[in-house]
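Thread: Newbie trying to understand structure tokens

Hi all, I'm a second-year student working on a class project, and my supervisor (Dr. K.) asked me to get a predicted structure for one chain before our next meeting. I've only ever worked with sequences, so writing a 3D structure as a token string is new to me. If someone could post the tokens and maybe explain what I'm looking at, I'd be very grateful. Here's the chain:
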Amino acid sequence: MTEAQSLTWGSRRARLTLTATILGSGLAFLDSSVVAVASPRIEADLGGGLPTLQWVTNGYLLTLGALVLVGGALGDLLGKRRIFLVGVAAFGAASALCGLAPTAEILIIARMIQGVAAALMVPTSLALLNSTFSGRDRARAIGAWSGLAGVFTAVGPFIGGLLVDTSPAGWRWVFLINLPIVVAAIVIARTAVPSIPGTRTSQPILSQVDIIGGMLAVLGLGLLLGPLIEVERLSPIAIAIMMCGGLALLIALGFVERHRGRTRKPPPMINLQLFTLRTFSVANIVTLVVYGSLSVAFFLITIALQQGIGYSAVAAGAAGVPVTIVLAAFSSKAGGLLAKIGARPMLTIGPIIMAAGMVILGSIRPGQSYWLSVFPGFVVFAIGLVLVVAPVTATALSDVGPNESGAASGINNAVARIAGLIAIILIPLAGGLAASQADSLGTGEALLSGYRTSMYIAAGVCLFGGLLALVTFRRDDGKAS
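---
Reply by user tm_fold:
Sure, no problem. This is what the structure looks like when written as tokens:
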């Protein structure tokens, strides 16, 4: 599809394309946040304590973060719409397995399969927009995609709370509710989303996809970060051996990708040439910092509201509704604003405001009024978030050509997910939350103490991200040409 054939903002086909991509990617974001509100019921039903719940969350983020690069490359190779549809269908099947899982171990495996499917549909959904819209319409489309897909993240705890409170096994519906959304996304995508040919040649498919790179990424990240989740159960020697092995695999990944970049047999999972684009590199650095703190905030707040403050699941989920409203109302406008004023002011001010919201949310205490403590924190956080989500994604792709948009969006998504994976392990560990008893989530003031420290650390990281944007972005970065 050439620039002249690009979809026009507001046309029927453009609206349907945007709807399909938002539904698909929104599922992935929904399932990255909804588990938090269901965590107490999952733990009560399947057991395993905090380490199991971290694996339920991080097993998903691990495969998504490591393989999203392969997903983006497959979209470029085999066709973005085709890989998007495969990912959505596989995500539906894995969601059904999650909902029916009889044990914690099967649930963790199913969540990792969900991550693989999400790694196919998230980068291709964004790449479809980058390839089918142009100019200011592209910025608006990516803004709407980022914000409205982000709404799934914010509304997930609320929907999850409603489902969890319906019955002791209501957490299972948190996953089964994905199925009608999957069907809708597939139907719309098949009928409205443009089919963009891939770059596949007559060579065998395995010779054109960097499978070894993907496996090295999964195993390396798993061995490096997994022992931190199991720190209460593993010996120091075992932790050291596993983490050294993970580090060695990630170093090997770097050499493999460098070799792939020279020989192109197959093309590298991580296209290092993209990092010669300054805006792409800078935007991904800011993404790494800000999304790490963002992921911790979403992960911790719902658990703290239930286990520390005493909210019901539905009340904890409903507490974040202000974030949903702000994202839905202003995300597309944020994309348009980016085209006018550029990335630097938005990505400086946004993280600073987000950090202020995290400090407010980190200060909540039992017995306080929702309207005087939790609500203001979420509103402030949401205002900052809407200035970040769409602009940082659009800026990362602003100088990337359509033929590389799948790989570029894959890298940007990988950075965001891996940042969340690392932060969800390290920041609570630093704050003392992960030091709760291995067989219990911990409750009351003991949990809130670790929660507050973790949220303050996350706020500091987010503030650093804003200052980083101030000194690294140029005045015209992100503006529409």
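A couple of things are worth pointing out once you decode it. The chain has two domains: 9-210+266-472, 211-265. Residues 211-265 form one domain. Feel free to ask follow-ups in this thread.
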